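# nightly structure sweep
# worker-07 picked up a monomer target from the shared queue
# config: single-sequence mode, recycle default, output format = structure tokens
# input follows
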Amino acid sequence: MNKSLNLYGHSQPSIFYTDNMADKQFLEECFPSLRQDVVPVEKYGHLEEFVIPLNIPIFVKNTTDSINDAARTILEDVPQDERSIIVGFDSEWNVEVAAGGRVMRRGQTAIIQIAYSNRIYIFQVRH
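# output follows
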């Protein structure tokens, strides 16, 4: 379908419905357009979409030295008296899903995201 849409000059889909969430990864692989501008509507769907302000830099680090330098920058801000700081933290990893939707295997952590002060770091720790 993807090839036919391209061949005849049609747009790729921007929305798809499936009653089986196991289809999500397959559909996104077939149609990368489904990953663009996604805003999940779930439990907190009544809230306004969060947008990272334009003045907040995002730093992508993918080497040992660059990740260590970024972590060192954060650690240098730890106050001497309180010995703590506040960070936002998230991590991502790949999963293999069986045809029935069951998770077959979880991969090792591939991406770590840290929001600290007025900057965001994305550490690619595995390919």
